[in-house]
Design a protein that fits this description.
139 residues, mainly alpha, Multidrug-efflux Transporter Regulator, Chain: A, Domain 2, three-stranded antiparallel β-sheet, 5 helices, 3 strands, elongated
Length: 139
């Protein structure tokens, strides 16, 4: 049998709570052995935790992580798993690009609103429709 780990050691290594690790166990993503009340985690459990943490950093849900784990097939070269991962990465990149565009547009709107407000505070003329561009529902 390879190396084993306690829940405390894994929690410390991955900077998560023991409750988080137990949640992943409840979700069926990892399955430690039991020795009395103690949970004993294998190297495989550790790798899965590492992959979950990486998936979360990439913005994947637990369901998406599980989907990738379920496709693990080393004898088949993991072709389906790798293709799904590429598809998910492409999808995530598109979503992030859209968020970046949305943020840039919001920054432009904020700059414009700030400039109009500063002009109004300085007593400079501001057109009546100066504030309508931000939110049409605002009276």
């Amino acid at each position: 049998m390879g190396p084993t780990f306690t829940i405390s050691a894994l929690a410390q290594e991955f900077d998560v709570t023991t409750r988080t690790i137990r949640f992943y166990e409840d979700e069926g993503l990892i399955s430690p052995e039991r020795r009395g009340q103690a949970r004993i985690y294998t190297a495989r459990d550790r790798v899965i935790l590492k992959l979950i943490m990486r998936g979360k950093r990439l913005g994947f849900s637990l369901a998406e992580c599980r989907e990738l784990f379920d496709l693990y097939d080393p004898e088949g070269g993991n072709k389906a798993q790798l293709q799904l991962m590429l598809d998910k990465l492409t999808e995530r990149r598109r979503a992030l690009d859209q968020q970046l565009n949305d943020i840039r547009l919001m920054q432009i709107e904020l700059d414009s609103a700030e400039a109009r407000i500063r002009a109004a505070q300085a007593g400079l003329p501001v057109s009546d429709d100066a504030f309508e561009n931000n939110n049409e529902d605002t009276p």
